[in-house]
Structures are given as structure tokens and as C-alpha cells.
Design brief:
Blueprint (H helix, E strand, L loop, with lengths): L1 H6 L9 H10 L11 H20 L31 H7 L14 H7 L1 E5 L3 H7 L6 H5 L1 H15 L4 H13 L3 E11 L4 E13 L9 E5 H11 L10 H14 L8 H14 L6 H13 L11 E8 L5 E9 L1 H8 L10 E9 L3 H30 L3
Parallel strand pairs: 1-7, 4-5
Antiparallel strand pairs: 2-3, 3-4, 5-6, 6-7
Helix pairs in contact: 6-15, 8-9, 8-15
Length: about 400
């Protein structure tokens, strides 16, 4: 028997029948594709064709963009055209795409003022001019003993340590004695013929004796502005417990802080918003061109060109023992280039005059306040005269 087993060839291992059955059952079966009918094939081809058409119709701008780098948050909407004119605001924004110019006015820097053509100038000749030009109907009020007492109380309240809310209420109450009433705190900033940002102030004011409801002045507490600016810097996925992210946020905040808080770019933005709010809508760029075209078609004389707009702002700095009063005049061309940012409007430089109002001594403070109130009343008088001129029939 052993000899016959060697002759039969190589020895094969024995496999149990149960093992063979399980291997057959677990063996992967080939997938047999079922043939589609002619109708199903046509339906499938039509669906693919519709999908290709929909993919080509989708604009490339809807493709997901990469996550932005940590930087100031941009405004929600940018009014642009396909080909902005050279040196227009949209052209300047595109040519400085790496600088992220299109941000909220609270995050403006000195570069924004330079590109817009705005500059601060400190007026050192304020006191001599105040002595030469007292207010027409306010000179007696400055010499009134009750007014002198109110000024001393104002200086004491502003110089003593206290909350900014208390000092803001003191300013509002003091201005109310001069007929300058508080109307609100928000100003819309217009860009591209519609509001794109809401500027928060510590008060916007109008004259109680005027027929017009237009604002004549705004008030800013620069310490509050600094706090709002720090809060506006937000990074994606911020983790306060992460030291590198916290240092990056502090770096952005330091970059946004102006070197001189008296020349804060946010002050210029509020002045621009004041001028936009007081500008009649029929004198804006598109509406004004429509009026000129209608007058030429009707063989009427061309309407008088719109005049410059003068605006005022009152501010309390953080450290110095004084207040600051700002005045600026904006040309129609300057406001038009913000109203239609894709068109180029040559405009002259905007000079923002800065006047210091000392809190002590009281005599100098009385002269400065009297001069400030006289300028505010003259601004409102010019607004009323302009409305009368626009109401005249041509």
C-alpha cells in the first residue's frame, strides 16, 4: 500500500465538503449590468444635457472662495460696475486690492483720508478771531452770570473722573441750553446711492429754532470710539484662550488706532455722513443731471449749481483738558464721487479745521463756546437760504 501511494503522484490535502460549500457561497459574483430600454436611455441623455447647461450658466463668482485672512471686516455690499473710470473710487479700491480699502468707516486709517483727499489742519488763530467776531445774538449770553456758572459746572464735570455716559449726558444738557437739541445717535453712510454702513455717534443735534429737521452737528467721545473700534475687530474662529490668536487681534487693533486721536479718520467719516444727510436728494449726482437734461429739453435756464456743504463736529478727547470743535466744507463733486463711485469727479481737497476749546480758564472757554455756537447757527442759516433758492420757480 505505501508503494502504490507514492506512484499515484504528489499528495493533495484533503478538504472538507462544508469548507468547499462556504467558499463557493462567499465568492464575489460578477455584476451584470442590465440593459436600458430605448426610452430610459433617451431620458438619461436629456438629464445629462440639462445638467451641463445648468453648470455652464452658473457664474464663476459663486464658486467657493478661500477663507479670508485675518483683517478688518469689509462692508456688506460694493457698488461697482464692470469698467470703473480711471481715478474713480472703485478704480482706486481695485488698484489697492491688497490693502483692503473697502472696510467699515470705523476701521478707516490715514490711507483712506489720503486717497479721499481729506486733511486735518489745526487752527491756531481761534482766540484772536473769537474776540474780533462775537456771535450776533449770543454775545450777551456768554457774559450772562448764569451762563458763566453753567460753564464752570461743565468744566468741573468733564475734568473730574467719571463714566463716559455721564459726561455725554452733561454735554447734551449743556448744548440744549443753546438751542441745540439731541435728535439721535446714528448716521447712515451712503456709498453707491444707498446706505452701506451705520455710523454710531454719541449724539447728533439740530437747532430747536429752525424749520428744517436736518442735523447741524455731531458729538463724539473719542474714548468710546476707541472702544468701539477694538470691539469691531473680529477674527474667524476666535479662541480667547489661544495666545497666538489674541496677539494677532491686538496687532490688528494697534494698526487701526490713529497716531493722534484728535485726527481720527472716523471723525472725517462722520462729517461726510453729516453732509450726505443734509444734502437734498434732488441735488445728488444722477438727480442733478436729470434736472439739467429736463431744463435743456424744455428750453429753460439751467438751475443754479449746488453749493458747498458746511458741517460741524464736537469731540471730547481721552486725556487733554480741553474739547475740540471741527468744521469742514464738502464740494458737490466730492459727494458725487461717493454717490457714483465708478465715475471720476475731480474735487478739491477737503480741509477739516480743528479748534481747541480749553476748559480752563472759564473766560476763554466762554469765548470758544460762543464762537462755536455762532458757527452752528450760521450753518443752519445757509441751509435755510439754500432751500429757499431751490424752491424758486425757474
Amino acid at each position: 500500500m505505501p508503494q502504490d501511494r507514492d506512484r499515484s503522484g504528489p499528495h493533495l490535502p484533503l478538504v472538507k465538503p462544508s469548507t468547499m460549500i462556504s467558499s463557493v457561497l462567499t465568492r464575489p459574483r460578477p455584476i451584470v449590468k442590465s440593459k436600458r430600454s430605448a426610452d430610459e436611455h433617451k431620458l438619461h441623455r436629456s438629464q445629462l444635457k440639462c445638467a451641463r447647461i445648468a453648470s455652464t450658466a452658473t457664474p464663476s463668482s459663486q464658486s467657493p472662495s478661500p477663507s479670508p485672512s485675518p483683517s478688518p471686516s469689509p462692508l456688506p455690499h460694493l457698488a461697482t460696475t464692470r469698467f470703473p473710470e480711471r481715478n474713480s473710487i472703485n478704480h482706486v479700491i481695485r488698484s489697492h486690492s491688497r490693502d483692503r480699502l473697502y472696510v467699515r468707516p470705523l476701521q478707516w486709517t490715514s490711507q483712506h483720508l489720503h486717497l479721499l483727499g481729506c486733511r486735518f489742519i489745526h487752527d491756531e488763530s481761534l482766540l484772536p478771531r473769537m474776540r474780533q467776531r462775537p456771535g450776533r445774538h449770543l454775545s450777551d449770553k456768554a457774559a450772562d452770570p448764569s451762563a458763566q456758572t453753567a460753564l464752570r459746572h461743565l468744566a468741573d464735570d468733564l475734568l473730574c473722573p467719571g463714566l463716559t455716559e455721564f459726561k455725554t449726558s452733561v454735554i447734551r444738557t449743556f448744548l440744549m441750553d443753546y438751542g441745540i437739541t439731541h435728535q439721535g445717535s446714528d448716521l447712515p453712510f451712503r456709498f453707491g446711492s444707498h446706505p452701506v454702513a451705520n455710523l454710531t455717534t454719541d449724539g447728533v443735534f439740530a437747532l430747536s429754532t429752525a424749520d428744517s429737521t436736518a442735523y447741524v452737528m455731531a458729538y463724539l467721545d473719542l474714548e468710546t470710539v476707541k472702544s468701539r473700534r477694538n470691539t469691531s475687530v473680529k477674527l474667524s474662529c476666535v479662541n480667547r484662550l489661544n495666545p497666538p490668536v489674541a496677539r494677532l487681534r491686538q496687532k490688528i487693533q494697534r494698526r487701526l488706532h490713529p497716531s493722534n486721536e484728535v485726527e481720527d479718520p472716523y471723525i472725517a467719516a462722520v462729517l461726510i455722513a453729516l453732509a450726505q444727510q443734509r444734502r437734498p436728494r434732488d441735488l445728488e449726482g444722477v438727480a442733478w443731471q436729470s434736472r439739467i437734461l429736463a431744463a435743456s429739453q424744455n428750453n429753460e435756464g439751467s438751475p443754479d449749481p449746488p453749493k458747498w456743504l458746511k458741517v460741524c463736529l464736537f469731540a471730547r478727547p481721552t486725556g487733554p483738558r480741553c474739547l475740540y470743535f471741527y468744521t469742514a466744507q464738502f464740494s458737490p463733486a466730492f459727494l458725487d464721487k461717493l454717490e457714483m463711485p465708478s465715475r471720476y469727479y475731480p474735487s478739491s481737497e477737503v480741509i477739516i479745521s480743528v479748534c481747541c476749546i480749553p476748559l480752563l480758564p472759564t473766560s476763554k472757554m466762554a469765548l470758544a463756546i460762543n464762537y462755536m455756537v455762532s458757527i452752528i447757527h450760521s450753518v443752519e442759516m445757509s441751509i435755510e437760504a439754500r432751500h429757499v433758492e431751490n424752491a424758486r420757480p425757474t
